[in-house]
Amino acid sequence: MEITCNEEQRLFVLKDTEFVSCVGYDVVYKTILELQRRIKKLNILRKGVSLVMAQEADIGTLDQYQHYRDLLEIVGTRKLGTWFDYDTSTKVRNILEQYRKEGGRLRLFYGDRNTGRDWMEENDLMGKIGRSTGTLQIPLLIAEGEYGGPGILDSCIVRILDADTRELLYQQKNYHLPDMEIRSTEGIMASWHTEKPPKLLTQMGYTHGVWARDKNGEFENRANFKSYGKAAQFVAFMSGECCEQPS
After folding, report:
1. How far apart are CA 122 and CA 110, in angstroms?
2. Would you tell me the crossing angle of helices 25-42 and 62-75 to the nearest 10 degrees?
3. Per the domain annotation, does 247 fall within a domain?
4. Which domain holds residue 160?
5. Is 244 contained in some domain?
6. What band does 31 get if pLDDT is binned at 50, 70 and 90?
7. What is the C-alpha end-to-end distance of the chain, expressed in Å?
8. How many domains are there within the chain?
9. Using CA atoms, how far apart are residues 227 and 210, in angstroms rounded to an integer?
10. What whole-number distance in Å separates Cα of residue 161 and Cα of residue 109?
11. How far is CA 61 from CA 11, 15, 64, 107, 165, in A?
């Protein structure tokens, strides 16, 4: 297998005769840190073998990629439990594990861990907690009636509610949701409409929209609806006041 570095996109590129895949520099580094943590905790090093600690200065080097492969070889087929990102807080890990083992649905809120700003994600936010197969078994979010689901961005979780009781289980101290306003769509063009002439939102049946304040402090159109009630429901869903998205 040929392994090269894509400096522009910060990726290790793996080429074989039958496939090409890639993995990010930072993903490899954070995975190494978490592997080192698990290996030390499980005490699975062979006698006389010491654990070489990862160095931030080595990020993006082939030596660090080899270090990553060496640690995976040490782990082998051992089960490490649910695999979380190195930066995921202990509180978030414990909540996800509790709900995976005991059942119940969670409503997740993703955002910027440094600023606490909610990203206002709309999809793949609510469900039961499952776990993938393989060596690094990541947590999955499984929607009602499904048997599988997407991987959870556990290190990007800034708030968690119990989806059934709406009990607040976790929230970063600096968590905040961008300001939102419900406005009439009268006279507003549909920005995604590519046909000519462009259409007004009202011509497409959208009577009200939700505007949210962006990082620069300006309000931008976030979503549009065919009634004031649906727009209000969207605001309630984003804030966690309800767990039902407007249709």
Report:
1. 10
2. 30
3. no
4. 90-171
5. no
6. very high
7. 48
8. 3
9. 11
10. 8
11. 10, 17, 5, 38, 48
Pick the closest to residue 131 from 100, 89, 95 (CA basis). 100
**45-78 pLDDT, tens digit each:** 766 566 788 899 999 999 999 999 999 998 988 8
Domain boundary among 22, 43, 75: 75
pLDDT of 174-216, one tens digit each? 999 999 999 999 999 887 766 777 789 999 999 999 999 999 9
The model's pTM is: 0.89
Do residue 14 and residue 61 come from a single domain? yes
Q: What is the pLDDT of residue 197?
A: 76
Do the Cβ atoms of 111 and 119 come closer than 8 Å? yes
Instruction: Indicate the residue type of 167.
Output: E
Tokens representing 216 are 């620069």
198 against 27, higher pLDDT: 27
Q: Please, are residues 211 and 188 in contact by the beta-carbon 8 Å criterion?
A: no
| The residue to which tokens 């600690």 are assigned | 53
Query: What CA–CA distance (Å, rounded) separates 178 from 161?
Result: 18
Give per-residue burial for 167-198: e unless 16+ CB within 10 Å, then b: eebbbbeebebbebeeeebeeeebeeeeeeee
Distance in angstroms (rounded) separating the CA atoms of residues 43 and 194: 59
Q: What are phi and psi of 140, to 5 degrees?
A: -120, 150
Number of other CB atoms surrounding residue 76 within 10 Å: 8
Confidence at residue 77, expressed as pLDDT on a 0 to 100 scale: 87
How confident is the model at residue 42, as a pLDDT?
A: 84
